[in-house]
Design brief:
Shape: globular
Strand order of the largest sheet: 1-3
Number of strands: 4
Order of helices and strands: EHHHEHHHHHHHEHEHHHHHH
Helix content: over 70%
Radius of gyration: 20 Å
Structural class: mainly alpha
Low-confidence stretches: 4-9
Length: 371
C-alpha cells in the first residue's frame, strides 16, 4: 500500500504468547462501543463483528503490525445518543471512506490536519466523551440498581489494577446475564446485511457528524497512529497510507452491514501494552470476532442489561476525556467540547476551526512583526 515503508516488523505474523494476549488490546474500546450500538440502535451485531473480524485479519497480514481497527467514536457516540439514525451513520461512513481514500491517495492529509488544528481535534474528542458520559448516565439511572452493579465492577477492576479492562469486564458480565436469560445461542450464519435508506439519510445531522468525525480521524487515527507505530515498533507507516486503508475499509464494509471504522493510536497502544508486536494479534482477534458473529443473536442482544451498558459508556468516556490534557490550548479544547455537547458536534467543529485559523493567523503576524 502506498506510503508504507518496510521496517523491522514488515510482513511478520507471529502467534506467540505476546500476540495472544495482545489481541485483547483494542477490544477494550471496540467491544463496549459495538455492544452499546447493537443494544441501542438498528445496527446488526453479527454483520458488524464480521466487518471488524475481516479487517483485523486483512490489516494484520498487509502491514505485519498490531494495527487497530476501531469504531469511529464521534459517529458511534452520536448514534448511541440517538442523534444519528442507522442510515445516517452508514452514509457518514461511506462519505468519510471516500474523503479518506482521496486524501490518502493524493498525499494531502498533512494539509488537512494543519487546517483543522490540534486543539480542535482534542476539543472534538472531549465533546464525544461528554456525549458518551451523558448517555451512559441516563442509561444507568434508568435502572439504578443494575447500573450500580456496573459501576461497582468498574471500581473493583480499578482497585485490582485492571482499569483498562474495566469496560470488557462489565460487558462480559452483561453477556453472562443475557445468556442466563436466553440460554446459549445456536451458532448461525449472519443473514443478508441490513440495507440503510441512504436517500433519506442525507441530512444536516449526518453532515455535522461527518465533520466532527473527520477531525478525530485525521488526528487520532492517522497522524497519532503513524507516530506511535514509529516510536514503539520502529515501523514507518505514513498517515496517508493509514487514511487510504481506512477509506478502503469503510467503502467495503459499511454497505455490507458494518459500521464506520478507523485505525487509532489507543488501540495500537493497547495491543502493544498487552504484548503484541506483529500482525498475529490482529489475526487472533479477527478470528475471535468472526466466531462471535455466529452466536450474536437478536435475542441475546435484547437481553443485555442497558443500565450496565451505561457503566461501560462511562468508562469509555473517561478514557477519551483524558486526551484533552494533551491539547496545546486545553481551555479552548474544553470550550469546544462544551459547545459540542450543548449544541452539536458539527457546529462546535466549524467554530473551532474558524477560531483556530484566526488565532494562528494573528499569532503568525505577531511573530513576523519587527521587534
Amino acid at each position: 500500500m502506498g506510503g508504507y515503508v518496510a521496517s523491522a516488523t514488515d510482513g511478520r505474523v507471529a502467534f506467540d504468547r505476546g500476540e495472544l494476549t495482545g489481541a485483547v488490546g483494542d477490544s477494550v474500546t471496540v467491544i463496549p462501543l459495538v455492544v452499546a450500538l447493537a443494544t441501542l440502535t438498528d445496527v446488526s451485531l453479527p454483520h458488524v463483528l464480521v466487518g471488524f473480524g475481516a479487517f483485523q485479519v486483512v490489516w494484520g497480514v498487509v502491514y505485519g503490525l498490531p494495527l487497530s481497527v476501531e469504531p469511529m467514536k464521534a459517529l458511534a457516540a452520536l448514534a448511541i445518543a440517538g442523534s444519528l439514525t442507522y442510515a445516517e451513520l452508514a452514509l457518514a461512513g461511506v462519505a468519510l471512506g471516500t474523503v479518506l481514500l482521496v486524501v490518502g491517495l493524493s498525499g494531502t492529509l498533512g494539509a488537512v490536519e494543519r487546517w483543522i488544528g490540534g486543539p480542535v481535534i482534542r476539543g472534538v474528542q472531549f465533546a464525544v466523551a461528554l456525549v458518551l458520559f451523558e448517555t451512559g448516565l441516563d442509561l444507568a439511572l434508568a435502572t439504578p440498581g443494575v447500573g450500580a452493579v456496573g459501576v461497582g465492577l468498574v471500581g473493583i477492576a480499578a482497585l485490582a489494577g485492571r482499569r483498562s479492562a474495566a469496560g470488557l469486564i462489565v460487558v462480559a458480565t452483561s453477556l453472562a446475564v443475557a445468556v442466563s436469560t436466553t440460554g446459549l445461542p445456536t451458532p448461525t450464519l449472519p443473514g443478508l446485511p441490513p440495507r440503510p435508506a441512504f436517500a433519506a439519510a442525507a441530512t444536516a445531522s449526518a453532515v455535522r457528524g461527518t465533520l466532527a468525525q473527520l477531525a478525530m480521524t485525521v488526528g487520532n487515527a492517522a497522524l497519532a497512529t503513524s507516530l506511535l507505530l514509529a516510536d514503539r515498533l520502529d515501523a514507518e507507516v505514513t498517515p496517508d497510507a493509514l487514511a487510504t486503508s481506512m477509506g478502503v475499509m469503510n467503502l467495503l464494509a459499511v454497505p455490507l452491514g458494518g459500521i464506520p471504522m478507523c485505525h487509532g493510536c489507543d488501540g495500537v497502544s493497547g495491543k502493544y501494552a498487552f504484548g503484541a508486536r506483529t500482525g498475529g494479534a490482529n489475526v487472533v482477534v479477527g478470528v475471535g470476532y468472526l466466531a462471535a458473529a455466529l452466536v450474536a443473536t437478536t435475542a441475546l442482544v435484547a437481553a443485555i442489561p442497558l443500565a450496565m451498558i451505561g457503566a461501560v459508556l462511562g468508562v469509555v468516556a473517561l478514557s477519551l476525556a483524558r486526551s484533552v490534557r494533551a491539547s496545546e490550548r486545553p481551555l479552548f479544547s474544553v470550550a469546544i467540547g462544551g459547545l459540542g455537547v450543548t449544541t452539536n458536534l458539527g457546529l462546535a467543529f466549524l467554530l473551532g476551526v474558524f477560531t483556530h485559523l484566526v488565532w494562528t493567523r494573528y499569532a503568525n503576524r505577531r511573530t513576523d512583526e519587527p521587534a
